[in-house]
Design goal:
Alpha-D-Glucose-1,6-Bisphosphate, Chain A, domain 4; 3 helices; 29% helix; globular
């Protein structure tokens, strides 16, 4: 399944339906060992995550990204503003000098879960396109992880 992407007014929304229960999908956002398995664009060859998953807690995600035979480092940092388990996570995120607010909603749709990631305060369209691509490629990696876990639980 592909991501649904919409943009406008310095805002980006990326949504995808996963064939897994909401509590399972939520757990892949709250556990650093699970999160590192799928987060990052398709060129991400290594992802290290440290998180203090609580309101007021922070996280650091360090990625090594392979581009044209070279690797570059990219770090995202942030602090959690709101956690409503298993419905919503909200946090501030720093992509280098760019600061945005991110809201992740987990919506039950029968046996499936719709994840909607909203980025607010994007500086420009170029940044938004890169974040949309990275989020969609991360979801591409998350999908088979969730499908395997959901089948094993049945």
């Amino acid at each position: 399944m592909k991501s649904e992407v919409s943009t406008g007014n310095n805002r980006l929304e990326v949504a995808r339906v996963f064939h897994a229960p909401r509590s399972l999908v939520f757990s892949y956002w709250t556990d650093p060992e699970k999160y590192r398995l799928w987060s990052g664009c398709k060129e991400c060859v290594q992802c290290d995550v440290v998180m203090d998953f609580r309101v007021g807690g922070s996280f650091t995600q360090k990625m090594k990204i392979a581009v044209q035979g070279q690797t570059c480092d990219f770090t995202v940092t942030g602090a959690y503003d709101e956690i409503v388990e298993p419905e919503r996570i909200s946090y501030s995120a720093g992509f280098g000098p760019v600061q945005v607010r991110v809201i992740v909603d987990f919506i039950e749709e029968g046996e499936n879960t719709r994840v909607v990631v909203t980025h607010e305060g994007l500086p420009d369209e170029f940044f938004g396109r890169n974040v949309a691509q990275g989020t969609s490629e991360s979801f591409d990696k998350l999908e088979p992880l969730l499908a395997g876990r959901a089948l094993a639980a049945q």
